[in-house]
């Protein structure tokens, strides 16, 4: 054990006692490196071109939403109710089946894409790789959205909406996105259920809601996703995962505490416990994926060790982001 | 089962306290290291599973505690030194005498004989039985016990490590007497002599010693004995020309074969003479170097084989000697006129002579020696030692007994430094007187009529009184006269004519030291310093190293430092041919037996071993997280 380790061990109780203060000031610092440098921007342009080529013919200035309305493309039927426009009654159906059904059309409008970036302390845990990856992905996907003339909004959430970038469109506004993402930092407890309730109340216009988070929510990862689902947003879960968290470098008798809630437990870490830890971590991840699949919510696990451009391409292939 | 160590009651107390403390410490939780985790809920899942098996955890912790208590019990039992009642038989009592004389420095075995001897003694220690006890003693000119009579291997090992060879002869008889005294009244006594057998006359070893009932064993060390030695080396200044000196040395070939050696004489660190000597087998070759000059203090003689090889023993290839220090003595002569006396004092250029008539005594200045010629005035403080020639009865240091005529020296002390090597019996005296010396006075010479030459002290000052006027005798015409005067002066200024140019190692040295001091600091040739006592103006020390020594005595106003030399110069020690057998107590001493390693039957050793095994298990299970 080196002198530095001894110092860290000695300082550990002090830093714990300082708690929120040390977390506020000692946590991930956004200005440690320029996340969105020249290399990043070059890759963004490539990704935008790739997205157009892969999804050729499906690009739109008029992107269809699930919202039914006055478009020209037939979407569905529903029973006639008093007050409906007679012009939309499908008389052919009435003639064949004797039922009054109204024809529904997809309403054509530009799509709103919301990026909800988790800014809780757990995202900046360790060396902040998760938070960096989350911001890079948010920036990259936002650029693709802006390039497709979608309305892009970014919010930073913990257990409340910490910060919000006003809705914008056009790829020229990407620098505004960079500025916003550079400004936000990790601080606070995860509470996606509460924060997203605020989010849906503030944003009446429904659209694609990309939730970028590690989903370490003490209230359960389902809460946030369900709020989006129940309020007719189209949730897209971008799960930021750090495999190192499945293999903590702990040994012996320790008192672990949650970096957000401060909850403590005494553990004797053995090889078996570490094995169980890996299994539990994978189960937690599988639970999230299973939940999303079951509820038809697109899910994509973003590994912090994989370059962001590869992840973006994966998001494209996975579908759900581009239609 | 008996406890030979701590008593049972004490063991129980220790067990209760230590066991209680162990249990308390085990129950007390250690402060754990706090570690942050990103999401504690995942850990909770694991811990929920773990809690389901908590009874097993508790059991494992209990197992750990039991291991600790077992470890403690083993250690406490070991403290008690338990022994089976049947094993408490009387063991042997062994005195091991290890020859540490100069011959044990021989390199005929690798690395030296003393190292081989140490290895042999260690084997004996390893072979001690559970109830055997041993005492290890170093035997050179003296006998030094290095341990008590003990069965503790650790103590005996320490004693063996302290063994070293010295530059002295081996006094085996003294060693055997010590061993017999140590073993008197003890069961199964045994003496083991570890030596090269180069101990002089073997028959003389056992004279007047009673080995009845004592087993005597002999462990021979060494295999060959090729050696040439300087067995004598001394130097002296010429009495009448102290700038010059003569050297006597003796070189001895202890081998059967002839050998050529190169002899180098070194004075004050500079080579004075190099010569090549041819010695026949067992030849002792004396050499004299006369009328040498150049060196003022130290002299060394070194020999080496002419072939360039070294012999087996280097300790006796180098000899040391020191010449007496020369200093100018201030001599006052109180005389109405004495040509013979004045002429004698001119012989020594290192004398500052002042002559005064009796009327002018005392003159100004301090003097080391005063010669009173036919007078005895009250002695002044600046007088120093006094030589009275024909002193008057009144005022003289010694009272006259009676007047005598036509006499001579019928008896004289031939060892006294004033008259040593002198022929006094030829002196004819016409008239004089005999003395009536006091009790403490020393009569150096006497005629039939009584003492005529007396030495002693008056008021702390030395004096010598001659009971006749030398001019009334033929003394002044003889060689003895100037020698007598100069020897007396030298004796007063402590420039002893019996000066020893070197001491012999292994003997008790009485080194002249300034009177008044009680302790002197002696710096040995190896650089170590020793505090040694001074008794009656002599520092007493048993020296065991050859070389130059420095003796420092704290006197007012400043410390006085003097040097002296010491040599082995012992032909018996230089004869290093080892002896395979040794006759002790009228029969050849046998090799040691019954010293087989692994014979110890001490249970505490096994308990300690078990404790080590248990602690290893505990360590293993702890680190493998079996018992936590």
What do these coordinates show?
Chain A is built from ten helices and eleven strands. Chain A has a six-stranded mixed β-sheet, sandwiched between helices. Helices cover about 40% and strands about 25% of the residues of chain A. Chain A is an alpha/beta fold and about 325 residues long. In chain A, strand 4 (about 110-120), helix 5 and strand 5 form a beta-alpha-beta unit. In chain A, helix 3 (about 40-55) crosses helix 5 (about 130-145) and helix 5 (about 130-145) packs antiparallel against helix 6. Chain A has two domains: about 30-60 and about 110-320, von Willebrand factor, type A domain (Rossmann fold); about 65-110, no CATH class. Chain B has eleven helices and 34 strands. Chain B is an alpha+beta fold and about 625 residues long. Chain B has an eight-stranded mixed β-sheet with strand order 17-16-18-19-25-24-23-21, with helices on one face. A seven-stranded mixed β-sheet of chain B has the order 26-32-31-28-29-30-27, with no helix packed on it. In chain B, strands 6-5-4-7-8 form a five-stranded mixed β-sheet, sandwiched between helices. The mean pLDDT of chain B is about 85. Chain B has five domains: about 1-85 and about 610-625, no CATH class; about 95-225 and about 575-600, Rossmann fold; about 230-325, Sandwich (Immunoglobulin-like), CATH 2.60.40; about 330-490, Class I glutamine amidotransferase (GATase) domain (Rossmann fold), CATH 3.40.50.880; about 505-565, Immunoglobulin-like, CATH 2.60.40. The chains are: A alpha/beta (about 325), B alpha+beta (about 625).
């Amino acid at each position: 054990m080196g002198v530095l380790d001894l110092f860290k061990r000695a300082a550990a109780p002090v830093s714990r006692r300082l708690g929120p203060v040390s977390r506020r000031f000692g946590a991930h610092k956004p200005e440690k490196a320029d996340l969105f440098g020249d290399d990043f921007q070059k890759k963004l342009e490539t990704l935008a071109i790739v997205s157009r080529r892969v999804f050729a013919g499906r690009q739109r200035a008029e992107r269809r939403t699930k919202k039914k309305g006055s478009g020209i493309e037939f979407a569905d039927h529903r029973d006639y109710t008093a007050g409906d426009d007679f012009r939309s009654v499908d008389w052919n159906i009435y003639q064949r089946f004797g039922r009054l059904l109204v024809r529904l059309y997809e309403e054509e409008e530009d799509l709103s894409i919301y990026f909800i970036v988790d800014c809780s302390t757990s995202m900046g845990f360790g060396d902040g790789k998760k938070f960096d990856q989350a911001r890079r992905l948010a920036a990259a996907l936002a650029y693709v959205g802006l390039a497709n003339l979608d309305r892009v909004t970014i919010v930073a959430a913990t257990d409340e909406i910490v910060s919000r970038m006003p809705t914008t469109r056009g790829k020229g506004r990407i620098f505004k996105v960079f500025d916003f993402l550079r400004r936000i930092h990790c601080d606070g407890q995860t509470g996606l259920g509460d924060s997203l309730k605020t989010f849906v109340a503030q944003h009446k216009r429904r659209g694609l809601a990309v939730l970028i988070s590690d989903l370490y929510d003490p209230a359960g990862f389902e809460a946030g996703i369900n709020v989006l689902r129940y309020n007719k947003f189209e949730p897209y879960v971008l799960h930021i995962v750090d495999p190192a968290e499945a293999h903590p470098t702990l040994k012996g008798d320790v008192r672990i505490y949650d970096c957000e809630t401060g909850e403590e437990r005494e553990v004797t870490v053995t090889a078996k416990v570490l094995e169980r830890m890996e299994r539990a971590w994978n189960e937690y991840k599988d639970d999230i994926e299973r939940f999303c699949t079951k509820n038809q919510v697109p899910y994509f696990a973003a590994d912090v060790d994989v370059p962001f451009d590869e992840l973006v391409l994966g998001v494209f292939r996975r579908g759900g982001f581009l239609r | 089962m008996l406890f030979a160590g701590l008593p049972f009651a004490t063991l129980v107390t220790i067990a209760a306290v230590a066991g209680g403390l162990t249990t308390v410490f085990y129950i007390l939780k250690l402060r754990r290291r706090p570690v942050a985790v990103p999401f504690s809920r995942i850990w909770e899942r694991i811990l929920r599973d773990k809690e389901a098996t908590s009874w097993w955890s508790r059991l494992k912790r209990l197992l750990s505690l039991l291991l600790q208590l077992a470890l403690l019990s083993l250690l406490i039992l070991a403290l008690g030194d338990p022994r089976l009642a049947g094993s408490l038989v009387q063991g042997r009592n062994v005195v091991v005498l290890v020859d540490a004389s100069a011959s044990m420095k021989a390199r005929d075995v690798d690395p030296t004989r003393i190292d081989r001897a140490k290895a042999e003694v260690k084997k004996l220690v390893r072979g001690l039985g559970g109830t055997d006890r041993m005492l290890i003693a170093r035997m050179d000119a003296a006998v030094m016990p290095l341990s008590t009579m003990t069965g503790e291997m650790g103590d005996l090992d320490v004693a063996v490590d302290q063994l070293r060879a010295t530059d002295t002869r081996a006094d085996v008889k003294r060693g055997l007497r010590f061993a017999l005294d140590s073993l008197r009244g003890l069961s199964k006594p045994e003496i083991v002599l570890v030596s090269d057998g180069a101990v002089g006359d073997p028959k003389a070893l056992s004279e007047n010693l009673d080995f009845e009932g004592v087993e005597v064993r002999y462990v021979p060390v060494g295999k060959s004995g090729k050696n040439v030695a300087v067995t004598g080396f001394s130097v002296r200044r010429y009495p009448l020309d102290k700038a010059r000196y003569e050297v006597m040395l003796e070189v001895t070939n202890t081998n059967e074969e002839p050998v050529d050696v190169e002899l180098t004489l070194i004075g004050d660190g500079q080579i004075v003479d190099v010569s090549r000597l041819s010695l026949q087998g067992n030849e002792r070759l004396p050499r004299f170097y006369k009328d040498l000059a150049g060196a003022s203090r130290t002299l060394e003689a070194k020999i080496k084989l002419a072939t360039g090889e070294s012999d087996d023993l280097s300790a006796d290839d180098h000899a040391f000697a020191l010449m007496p220090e020369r200093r100018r003595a201030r001599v006052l002569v109180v005389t109405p006129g004495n040509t013979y006396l004045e002429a004698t004092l001119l012989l020594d250029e290192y004398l500052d002579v002042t002559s005064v008539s009796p009327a002018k005594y005392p003159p100004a200045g301090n003097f080391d020696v005063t010669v009173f010629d036919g007078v005895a005035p009250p002695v002044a403080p600046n007088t120093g030692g006094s030589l009275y020639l024909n002193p008057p009865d009144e005022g003289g240091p010694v009272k006259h007994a009676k007047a005598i005529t036509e006499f001579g020296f019928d008896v004289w002390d031939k060892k006294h430094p004033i008259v040593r090597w002198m022929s006094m019996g030829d002196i004819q005296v016409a008239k004089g007187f005999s003395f009536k010396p006091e009790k403490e006075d020393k009569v150096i010479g006497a005629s039939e009529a009584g003492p005529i030459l007396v030495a002693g002290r008056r008021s702390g000052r030395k004096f010598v009184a001659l009971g006749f006027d030398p001019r009334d005798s033929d003394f002044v015409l003889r060689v003895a006269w100037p020698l007598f005067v100069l020897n007396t002066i030298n004796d007063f200024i402590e420039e002893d004519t019996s000066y020893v140019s070197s001491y012999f190692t292994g003997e008790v040295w009485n080194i002249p030291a300034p009177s008044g001091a009680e302790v002197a600091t002696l710096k040995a040739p190896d650089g170590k310093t020793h505090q040694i006592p001074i008794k009656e103006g002599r520092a007493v020390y048993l020296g065991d190293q050859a070389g130059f020594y420095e003796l420092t005595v704290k006197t007012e106003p400043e410390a006085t430092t003097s040097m002296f030399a010491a040599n082995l110069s012992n032909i018996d020690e230089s004869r290093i041919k080892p002896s395979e057998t040794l006759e002790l107590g009228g029969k050849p001493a046998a090799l040691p037996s019954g010293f087989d390693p692994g014979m110890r039957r001490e249970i505490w050793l096994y308990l300690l071993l078990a404790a080590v095994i248990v602690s290893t298990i505990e360590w293993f299970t702890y680190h493998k997280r079996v018992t936590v």
